[in-house]
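ZP: hey, is the flavin-adenine dinucleotide complex queued? I don't see it on the tracker
AM: it wasn't, my bad. submitting now with these inputs:
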Amino acid sequence: MSISERFSTHEVENQVPPLGASNLFVTDRALREAVTREGGGWAEAALVDFGAVAGGEMMELGVAANRHKPALQAYDATGHRVDEIEFHPAYHRLMQLGMQHGVHAFAWRHAETPGAHVARAALMFMHYQADSGTCCPLTMSYAVVPALRHDAGVAAEWLPRLTSFDYDPRSLPAGAKRACTMGMGMTEKQGGSDVRANSTRALRQADGRYELVGHKWFFSAPMSDGWLVLAQAEGGITCFLMPRWRPDGARNAIRIQRLKDKLGDWSNASSEVEFEGAWATRIGEEGRGVATILEMVSLTRLDCMIGSAGLMRQATVQALHHATHRRAFGKRLLEQPLMRNVLADLVLEGEAATALTLRVARAVDARARDPREAALARIATALGKYWVCKRAPVLVNEAQECLGGAGYVEESTLARHYRQAPLNSIWEGCGNIQCLDVLRALAREPETRDAYFAELDAARGLDADLDAERVRLGHVLDDRATLEVRARRIAERMALALQASVLLRGGDAEVAAAFCASRLRGDHGAAFGTLAPDAPIEALLARGAAA
Ligand SMILES: Cc1cc2nc3c(=O)[nH]c(=O)nc-3n(C[C@H](O)[C@H](O)[C@H](O)COP(=O)(O)OP(=O)(O)OC[C@H]3O[C@@H](n4cnc5c(N)ncnc54)[C@H](O)[C@@H]3O)c2cc1C
């Protein structure tokens, strides 16, 4: 008898069962509590519905849509320029499910009900966990609405299709479609942060419309039905609506040069384009383009924060699941004291990210009704975009490590999430730009400073560390000469204090105390898994568990 007849190579054991389908809303205690706290609880039925879809069918679709990247079809078989993008069917199904549940438009459909943006933030939070790439066109279609309202005619023509809960991927003039999506084009080769350096030219035509000649260096979702773009008109930098098809039924002169070969974000197509006399309508006044498009940008920045918080949640769920089943050195990983510290710390970070994100969504929601909330939205969007997006890659990497080698291979979706995680920090204004924006808001709009400190003051007396940090932050701007060089440190501390205040007032008391001790008092190291021995690790793990 040969040795291979006597022995089998091995039995597969101690491997972790698949995570399986789950309801991303029902199983996420921190999200549910935050939605209720911030005024979106009335939408619970819609969130439960979408939670099941996002945690079920969409999880599978997300894998397929990222395995089969979109491809550019610049020409048709007969050599005519078509500039189309070919997507895998999973991409289309993800878009359909997202739009059917209102990930792009729930807030506008329910604009009269306070909390609509909070509920919509929860939808985006869940969609992002299944697939981040489709969130790009959904975000831009959500965010474009306030800017389009600058022009009543344009709004009347576009908003019904942009806020439709339908998905219509056909490449047709917008007027012939049931539903539309939109993108944005600001970044050029010579500069993305400094959009005033845009070189694309806009020439006014006799009929009042414009033709644009120039390029965009990053132009995501090039299959959208229209884009807001910036270009230099006679009166200065101006915002335009550029449709994919001209009103006369011809393709607009938008040439896709190539698709970006990106680190991650694979289900989403991002392109380089040139405009060869592309037809466009002006939105807002000539010379006011940056201010006009910033209304869109402020909402896309909110979505960066939402997406990163969602990614943190998904990574933590996967790490907890693995640790629950995997054994090493005679115990489940979840029973190993040091691993418990790591996992509890991930839960804590994710919960603080969720709490801050939903608080900012409430400020955005209330900004038209309440000037203080408007001021808070202004500054807290920059703070949250900076801090939550910065924390996501670190957290996702730590969650990967909880899976050991399994976290580094493609069968684990954590490899994909890790590639995705840095993006929200880069696009829609990189980290430095957010921190400088915080300083700009504090200097030029004193109401933002009042609104920010009012949030901290609302938690006065609840935690000695936050009280002490509140006093110190009151002086942080005193040394004006060094402000810019200190901008990151200032933004980080302001974000942490705001997270602490939100958690103390509405979150779980043990979570809030652990957050203040670790993040404000400094009872914590630079890496995750450095909570103090007396931290409420058991309680944190219980809160993080998908139940
Ligand atoms: C996948 C992907 C998709 C994208 N899709 C789009 C899209 O659809 N539409 C679009 O318009 N753009 C898009 N972008 C572009 C993105 O918004 C820009 O890359 C980003 O704004 C930065 O611009 P930049 O690349 O030109 O970098 P730069 O502006 O050159 O900045 C480089 C670095 O310098 C820093 N910096 C700049 N100014 C200062 C300063 N004064 N002080 C200190 N630091 C500073 C920045 O923070 C950054 O870290 C996309 C980017 C990516 C990666």
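AM: back. The chain has a mean pLDDT of 97.
ZP: great, adding it to the tracker
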